[in-house]
């Protein structure tokens, strides 16, 4: 549904970067699920590390003018 949104011109590039990152993380999570289901512990750990490395979605969301869903502790 996010792809249906049309941001202001000034936010188009950051919005596209955000969507690309979300797609990347979703793909990695699918791979992680498959690895975990298959008992591939080493691959699952590698994927967890890769997901952590690209976990800048909140920063990209803010740059795209999307308020972050955060809960303070």
Task: Tally the helices.
Answer: 3
The total of beta strands comes to 0
Average pLDDT confidence is 87
**Which structural class do you get from the secondary structure elements?**
mainly alpha
Q: What oligomeric arrangement do these chains adopt? A: single chain
Cα Rg: 15 Å
**What spatial form do the alpha-carbon principal axes imply?**
elongated
Sheet with most strands: none
Q: Give the helix proportion (percent range).
A: 55-70%
- Low-confidence spans: none
Which range does the strand content fall in?
Answer: under 5%
Distance between the termini: 29 Å
H/E topology pattern:
HHH
List keywords for this structure.
3 helices, 73 residues, mainly alpha
State the gist of this model.
This protein has 73 residues and is mainly α. The protein has helices at 12-37, 41-53, 57-63.
Description:
By secondary structure, this protein is mainly alpha-helical. Helix content is 63%, strand content 0%. The chain is built from three helices and no strands. The chain has helices at residues 12-37, 41-53, 57-63. Helix 1 packs antiparallel against helix 3. The radius of gyration is 15 Å and the shape is elongated. The model has no long low-confidence stretch (mean pLDDT 87).
């Amino acid at each position: 549904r996010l792809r249906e949104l049309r941001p202001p011109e000034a936010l188009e590039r950051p919005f596209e970067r955000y969507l690309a990152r979300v797609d990347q993380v979703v793909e990695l999570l699918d791979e992680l699920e498959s690895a975990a289901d298959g008992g591939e512990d080493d691959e699952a750990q590698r994927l967890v590390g890769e997901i952590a490395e690209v976990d800048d979605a909140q920063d990209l969301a803010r740059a795209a003018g999307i308020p972050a869903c955060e809960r303070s502790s």
